[in-house]
Amino acid sequence: MNNSQLELARHCRMCQNLDFNVSYGTKCGLTKEKPDFKEKCHKIEFGENAEKYITEVSVEKELVDKSKFDYIGTFIMYLLISLSFMIGGTLLTRYIFGFGVFHTVTLILIGVGILILPKSFGTLNMFRAKKNVADEKIKNLEKTLKKYNKHYEIDLNIKDIHGIKEVKSKVRIY
Fold this sequence. Notes:
By secondary structure, this protein is an alpha+beta fold.
C-alpha cells in the first residue's frame, strides 16, 4: 500500500460505512467501491468505528508511555551487569598480572560484558521505536480528524488484571 492508500484507509477505518474484507480490503459500504476521494470523503459518518479506532490508538500510546520506566530500568540493569563484567575482568587482569600470570578467564569476563552491552541499548531502541509508532498514529489520527474539523476527547481507564489489560474508555467526538 502506498501512502495515499493508507491515508484513504485511515479515513474509512473511522467511518460507519466501512466495508472491510480480508480478500478485497477496504470498500465503502455505500458505493461498494474502493475509496477514491482526494482530500476527504463527503459521505463519512463518525460513530462506533471512529470511537474504536481512537480508543485503540490512544491505548497503544498510553501503554507505551507507561512502559517508559520499565525500559529505562531494563537498560540500567543490563548496563550495570555489562560494566560489572568488564570492570571485574579488568581488575582481575591487573591483579593476576601482578603475579606474572595471565588467565583466559579474565578475557572471558570482559568478553561477556561486551556481549551484554548491546542488549542494554537494544531496550532503549525498542522503546524509542514503539514510541515513534504510537506518536505517529496519534498524529495521523488528529490530522485526519482535522480535515473534517473534528476533535476528540477520551477518558481511558486501563487496568492490569493478572497480566490482562482491561480497557474502559469514553470517547467524545465533536
